[in-house]
Amino acid sequence: MANSKKLSLFGLIGITMAFFGTVRSVPTLSITGWTQIFYMLVAALLFALPIALISAELSTGFPQEGGPQVWVKNGLGEKWGFVTSWLLWVQMFFGMVMVSSTVGVLFGYVINVPKLSSNNYFIFVVILISFWGVTLLNLKFDMVKIAGNWGAIIGVYIPFIFLVILGVIYLFKNGIQPESYLGNFKASDLLPNLGDLGSLAYLSGIIFIFAGVEISSVHANFIENPKRNYPIAVIASVILLVIFNIVAGLTVSNAVPKGKMELSNITQPYLIFCHNLGIPSIFVNIISAMILIGVLVQLSAWVLGPSKSMIKVADEGNLPPFFQKRTSKNIPITFVMIQAIVISMVSVLYIVVPDVNSAFFIMTITTTILYCIVYLLISISAIRLRYKMPQVERPFRLGKGNGLMWFVSLLSLLSVVLTLVVSLIPPSILDPSQHTGYIIFQVAATIVMVGVALIIYKMKRPSWKKEE
What we know:
mainly alpha, Amino acid/polyamine transporter I, 68% helix, globular
C-alpha cells in the first residue's frame, strides 16, 4: 500500500478522539466532584490503555472482518467467539435505551418545556418514537452516509467545545462555588470515600466513557509504521480525552449545586452558564437541538452496525436460518426488528423506576458490565494466542517476548474485575429501598444475556449453516 493511502499519526489521534468525544457522559463524571480526577485516571490507565494496546496487536495479527469475535474465536474457540459477538449486540439493548432517553430530555429544552425532561412517561414515549424512527429510516436509507460526518460535527464537537469554553469563563468569573460539588475542598476529596460505597459505583459509569476502545484498533493496519505510531496515537488520544473530560467535568461540577445533578440532562450546565454569563436563553435551545441531532446520528450508526456483525455469525451456522434473512438492500432485517422490539421492552424501566436519573444510571451500568465480559474474553485470548499461534505476524506487537503481553493483559483483567465488582454496588443516587432490586436486575440481566448465548450455541445444528 502506498504511503499516500496510509493514515498519519495525527489522523489516527483525530479518529480516536472523535469516537470518544461526547458531552453525554459529562454529568456522570461531574457528579463525583474532585474524585473524578482519580476515577478518570484509573479508567484511562487501567482500563482504556491496556485494552487499546491489546486490541492493536490482535487487529494487526488477525485483520479479518469481525474484530473481537475473530480474536476470541481464534484464542478460545468458536463458542466464546459467538458469545463475544452476541454480547456486543445485546449490550446495545441497554446502551441504546440510555442514549435514546437523552433525546426526550433534550427535546423538552428544544421546545422550551423543560418540565417534560423529568417526566418518565414522556421519556418512555420519546425512546419508542426515536428508536423506531431511526430504525425505519435505516431500512429505507443509508442514514450514516447521509448524516455521519456533519452529524458528529454539529452534535458532538461544537457542543463539547462550547461546554468547555463556557465552563472555563464561568469559573474565572465566579471562582469555586461553595454550594457546588467542588465546594469546601479537602485533600481527601481527591480520593474515593470508602465509607460511602455507593459513590464507587460511579467509577463504572466513568469507565463507560471508554467502552468500545477496541474499535479504533481496526485502523492499526492502515497507519504508517504501526509499531511506533500506534502506541503514540493511543496514548496521546487517551491523555487528550482525560484532559478535555476533566476540564469539562470540573467546570460542570462547579456550576451545578450539590445534590442537583441531572445525569441524563446535559442541557443543565449550559442553562446555568448562559444564565450567569448573560447569554440569551435561545442559545440553550440551539445547543440542545444540535446535541439532539448528534444523538440521533449515533443511534443510526448503532441500528445497523452490530446487526451486520451478527448476521455474519448467523451465516456461519451459529443461529437458525430465520436470523439470516436480509432485505433487498442487504439489511439484516431479523436482527434489526428484534433489537427494536427488545429495546422497546427494556425502556419500560423508565416507567418502573420513578426517577429518570436512576433509570439512566442503571442502563449505563448494565451496558458497562456486558462490555466488561467481552474485554475479559479479549484479554484472555490475547495471552492464549501468543502460545497457540506464535507464528502469526503481528505488525504491532507488545514486546519481543511474552512478558509485556502478560503484564498488560493482567492489568486489563484486574481493571475489568474491579469494574464488575463496583458495578454491583448500588449507587448513592438510588433510594435504599431500591438497592436489592438494583443488584438483582444487574445480576439477572448479565446471567440471562450470557446464558441465552450459551444455550443457542449448545442447540446449534449443522443445517443452520448458510449454503454458499
